[in-house]
Amino acid sequence: MAYFDKSLPELQAYLPAREEPPDFDAFWDRTLTQARSFPIEACFTPVDYHLRTIETFDLTFRGYGGQPIKGWFSLPAQRSGKLPCVVEYLGYGGSRGFPIDRLIWSSMGYAHLVMDTRGQGSVWGSGGDTPDIEDLPSSPQVPGFMTRGILDPETYYYRRLITDAVRAVEAARSHPEVDPDKIAITGGSQGGGLTLAVAGLVPDLIAAMPDVPFLCHYRRALDITDSQPYQELTVFCKIHRDKVDQVFRTLSYFDGLNFSARAKAPALFSVGLMDLICPPSTVYAAYNHYSGPKQIKDWSYNNHEGGDSYQRLEQAAFLKSILKSEVSNSI
């Protein structure tokens, strides 16, 4: 694999115009208000996965439309006082799997919530447990999730998923052993896109760590990559030639660039400079529009895996420094 996108200096300066609908904020205010009309009703049921140093809980909370969303919640077995919590979102096609699949954050002493992804879980991992319940009629779609309900932002799949992701933060805050003022969010690929969305919609997070984020700068992505899942959008537009403007109008309500412009939490991004799935220019566009304190880690010779475990170490150090700064500022 060779470089195919802009040079690094060009990426660092890349600040494309955002396509933002005039009712963007009103749309999301209304969407979240509707979701919050249902009590969160987060239920944490202890489960035994044979872990001696981590306590695990089967989580159910109410997401979009009051629909039940599954997840895992983990706590270090030895703890004192309320804990910071890391809320994690997952990549495209996968879902919550088992608690043993993700032990990094709880092993570091944090509470950890992994949100299941509605309708997904049959492409990689150990499977998911949350159906996608559509409450409105939907248009034809390309197999997958990128074009499900895409002809109207009211019916688009990611309206439901992003709302679930916001509600996952509220579920974490409801746990009695979580410090509600110390919530960090993270995720890779689709999970990175969800991280940016939540950072733009929830104003009081302590950190956001979007890893090789998906769901950003759609026009650019479709212009320069034919990799999945963006290709689902290309195929839809190829067949529905008369609906292209309608498609991009819907996508403008869900573009990571528009969420980034509203986000305030300190952020650590990552990007693979040879990434064919989430091209570097789409990631840098979101990064350069991000309005809070920010830094980015470039992985020069990596594709969509980005920094992988190296990035986890970067995130651990970043979050530790944020929390240390919080403590220092409170003294």
The tally of helices reads 11
Helical amount among residues, as a percent range?
Answer: 25-40%
Architecture (CATH level 2) name: 3-Layer(aba) Sandwich
Question: For the record, what is the CATH homologous superfamily label?
Answer: Alpha/Beta hydrolase fold, catalytic domain
Largest sheet: 9 strands, mixed
Give the SSE order as H and E letters.
Answer: HHEEEEHEHEHEHHHHEHEH
Descriptive report:
The protein has helices at residues 8-13, 24-36, 104-107, 157-173, 190-201, 218-224, 230-239, 244-251, 256-260, 280-289, 309-330; strands at residues 43-47, 54-62, 68-76, 83-89, 111-115, 178-188, 207-211, 267-272, 294-299. With 331 residues, the protein is an alpha/beta fold. Strands 1-2-3-5-4-6-7-8-9 form a nine-stranded mixed sheet, with helices on both faces. Helix 10 (280-289) links the parallel strand 8 (267-272) and strand 9. The termini are far apart.
Essential attributes:
single chain; alpha/beta; 9 strands
Give the topology, please.
Blueprint: H1 8-13, H2 24-36, E1 43-47, E2 54-62, E3 68-76, E4 83-89, H3 104-107, E5 111-115, H4 157-173, E6 178-188, H5 190-201, E7 207-211, H6 218-224, H7 230-239, H8 244-251, H9 256-260, E8 267-272, H10 280-289, E9 294-299, H11 309-330
Parallel strand pairs: 4-5, 4-6, 6-7, 7-8, 8-9
Antiparallel strand pairs: 1-2, 2-3, 3-5
Helix pairs in contact: 2-4, 4-5
